[in-house]
Amino acid sequence: MPIRSRFTKDEKKVMKFIDSTEEIIKHMNKSDSNKRSRLKLSGEQIDILESNFKIDSHPNSTTKSLLANALSIPFKNIQIWFQNRRAKEKMVRDSSKRRNGNTIAEERDQERGTVNYQTMCPFDFPPQERYFL
């Protein structure tokens, strides 16, 4: 039984192999027309976004739309800015907790009100006796 191809002759995929330095450089310099350039925010725009972030770190769609129109920035960029800013805030908060000597797990336990008796026990028991006092 002959093996049939999944594609007809017209549908066969064409692979292009880059085999010379000139072709590689030409391919690397080729700009992708679908890719947008990075949006650079001005200091004034950042100040406005920061002041709004201090008021509400999770603004609703209406607030984000108003900001987008006022700052002449696409809505999606406003949305991503707030998302990135919340991530930055969390990262700063977590790193400051670690600098204070608490691990993230210990901070979580403190927030929940649970106690980790292993870290509280002042005596150094052998591992087999540690849990059976």
UniProtKB/TrEMBL annotation:
DNA-binding region per Swiss-Prot/TrEMBL record? 34-93
Fetch the Gene3D superfamilies from UniProt.
Answer: Homeodomain-like
MF terms (GO), sorted A to Z: DNA binding; DNA-binding transcription factor activity, RNA polymerase II-specific
Q: Where is this region: Disordered?
A: 91-110
- Record-annotated Homeobox domain positions: 32-92
Note the SUPFAM superfamilies from the entry. Answer: Homeodomain-like
CC annotations in GO = nucleus
Q: Which CDD domains match?
A: homeodomain (cd00086)
UniProt entry keywords in alphabetical sequence? DNA-binding, Homeobox, Nucleus, Transcription, Transcription regulation
Q: Any keyword Ribosomal protein?
A: no
Name where it's found: Nucleus
Under InterPro entries, the record lists: HD, HD-ZIP_Homeobox_LZ_Class_II, Homeobox_CS, Homeodomain-like_sf
Is Metal-binding one of the keywords UniProt gives this record? no
Domain of life according to the entry: Eukaryota
Q: Which SMART domains match?
A: HOX
Q: What is this protein called?
A: Homeobox domain-containing protein
